[in-house]
């Protein structure tokens, strides 16, 4: 029997403690997801296997074998986790930490320089909130039922806020080689602020209204795509990320976002 090299590569990563997940592959020069307008060909998670994307990356050999039995041509992808960043640089200093419903928040002292609120700039599943941003904190109840609480030994009365290490600030302040919008566009700041505002408002949307609100956000942002103040890929990436965090199924999110963007762009012409 021919050995599946992609499966073997995934298992090898898992053996070394690196969490993996299955992503689409290329077929006929196009992404196997079948979307002609795929924004990340042969690189994005397979929703039937990992509906929560990178959050379901694992080192379980049983799960990995099951994934590749279902999709033997899937490409293995590594979850760019905080642990891997620390291995590349150095461990983060002891600071205040909060256990959330699906991970944790780390608090650092304000570095006296403005940091943008980002989703994924540090790596998949790693978000940053600073000026103008916010996080749900201790005492809040996650939709899973878990209560946000201080990690053991990391309460404010046990440890002071640490300064963010130089390597972390460096990664957060390095300009993105792909500018958000063309430099000739005069409305870059306003458009970026609108994108951030829609993200914040979406995350506050009550259950039962999230799909409708997602469509509205896409519609509103479509006009910035039409004027080239925002790139279509950047808007889609933010909306898909928020949809996943709200628990909207990938196929529903994809249809809702596409519909809203089309209407918003058309309205602007």
Description:
This protein is α+β, with helices and mostly antiparallel strands and 269 residues long. It has three domains: 5-79, no CATH class; 81-174, no CATH class; 188-268, no CATH class. Helices cover 38% and strands 11% of the residues. The protein has eight helices and nine strands. The chain has helices spanning 5-15, 61-70, 82-88, 166-173, 188-203, 210-226, 232-246, 250-268, and strands spanning 20-23, 26-27, 30-31, 75-78, 97-99, 104-106, 118-123, 126-128, 149-150. The strands form four sheets. A three-stranded antiparallel sheet has the order 6-5-9, with no helix packed on it. A two-stranded antiparallel sheet has the order 1-4. Helix 5 packs antiparallel against helix 6 (210-226), helix 5 (188-203) packs parallel to helix 7 (232-246) and helix 6 (210-226) crosses helix 8.
